[in-house]
Amino acid sequence: MTTNCIIFDIGGVLEVTPETGWVQRWEERLELPPGTVNERMRDVWRAGSVGSISEAEVYKQVAARLGLGMSQVETFMDDLWAEYLGMPNQELIDYVRGLRGSCRLGILSNSFVGAREREAALYRFDELVEQVVYSHETGIEKPDLRAFEAACAGLEVRPESCLFIDDVAANIEAARAAGMQAHLFEDNDRAINRIVAHLGTGPLPPRHAPLG
Predict the structure, then answer these.
(1) Mind listing the pLDDT tens digit for each residue in 77-99?
(2) Which residues in 56-203 belong to E strands, given as ranges?
(3) What is the CATH number of domain 5-17+87-199?
(4) Where are the domains of the chain?
């Protein structure tokens, strides 16, 4: 018997992550031309996303490349994490919680070193699903097909039995190339309807006020 499975992205799906403008504010504060922070930090951001640098080294590199004292580095990183973590998409999270036991559940996320601990503390994603696959732990980012293969292997499910939900079109295309079904996330209603269709039957979606 085929085991149905749903695998979710985090940012833009389980988390609502609007841009906060924190980088621009730091550039203004430090009197740097627009784009300077990401230009100087690009390789560090990349390294953090695939786990080839420690969180402590990230802090050291921020200090060295932007000329910040350690108290400023702490504030800088707090601003980074505030945008990264956003706020919970509570309606969808509540719906996923109601799916437990009816199908296999997983998360596949492009991430940054330190994300697991913070998201577990804030949102308990490690309790919401059976497996959370982070790029900073595997060293593989979506849309690399190996990321999708790792997620399916960890859940012991066949790709064709999985529905992957993400808000990035390139990742949806890659999931389909890996043999999975996929849904481009636009809003909760459409995502929940697609999950219900995938499962054939399922809990009715909880109805809440639309997200602001």
Answers:
(1) 999 999 999 999 999 999 999 99
(2) 87-88, 104-109, 131-134, 162-166, 181-184
(3) 3.40.50.1000
(4) 5-17+87-199, 22-85
